[in-house]
Amino acid sequence: MSGKLHIGINDVLKAKSRIRQFVHATPVFTSSTFDQRYGRRFYFKAENLQKTGSFKARGALNAVTALLESNRSIPGVVTHSSGNHGQALAWAAQIRGLKCAVVAPNTSPTVKLDAIRGYGADVVICEPTPISRQETCDRVANDKGYHFVPPYDDLDVIAGQGTIAVEFLEQIPQLDAILVPTSGGGMVAGIAVAAKSIKPDIRVFIVEPNGKDVERSLVAGERLWPNPPRVLDTIADGIRLQQLGHVTWPIIQEVVDKQVFTVNNEQIIDGMKFAFERMKLVVEAASGAGVAAAMSERMHNMDASICHVGVILCGGNTDIEHLPWYT
Ligand SMILES: Cc1ncc(COP(=O)(O)O)c(C=O)c1O
Question: What are the structural domains of the chain?
Answer without folding.
Answer: 9-54+154-326 (3.40.50.1100), 75-145 (3.40.50.1100)
